[in-house]
User: Fold this.
Amino acid sequence: MKITVVGAGRAGTSFFLALGEAGHDVALVHHEDRGDLVGQDVVLLCVPDDALEETSYALARGDYVVAHVAGSRGLEVLAPHARVASLHPLVALPSGRLGARRLRGAIYCVAGDPLVREVVASLDGQARTISDADRSLYHATATVAANHVVALLGQVSQLAERLGLSMADFLPLARQALEDVERVGPVEALTGPASRGDVATIDAHLNALPEAERAAYVAMAHVAFELAERRRSQLPA
Assistant:
């Protein structure tokens, strides 16, 4: 396919490299310099979410598919065009090279023109669909899965430094927890004081934690207690 990627940031560069490696004829342009779109099959918008509508309106009308990669937006932001679609990858794209590798074989949430399913297939990806009504919940879930995990490890880093240790000392524990979740699910993977109802230990943790770190600990402890309750409710009477 002939594909123009609009937006030369991390997402745009990642898609440009991945699609080129998959054999497509790909051009990468800045969002203010869209070039000649005649003969394109897909114009892929990799611009900030708030700029999607403006960028879409600025594109010349054509027979190509105008698609975006934003998880938080539906197809209405592409309304001026006859053929519209979206494909949001469930991967983090911290840089072009690493992002391009992650896009191959990724899971994509797709909507709109079926041509984007061919794009996903060319990247060896898996397509998923959700309703427009669930778009915000979907994006919130992706945010929890990626950004909140990073934020929690940021807290680990802060606490480890207070002990004279480093985050690297605790990363094997975090990796093991993720492996356990993948293997048996979060309910069965849960360990620690909340899993056994050990409120005294949690109180001791709160006393030891710096005040600024307590709110996050309490919030996640509540979630852990709920997981533990789900496990207890599944036990045979």
About this structure: The beta strands are 2-6, 25-29, 42-45, 65-68, 84-89, 107-112, 126-128. Residues 135-162 form the longest helix (28 residues).
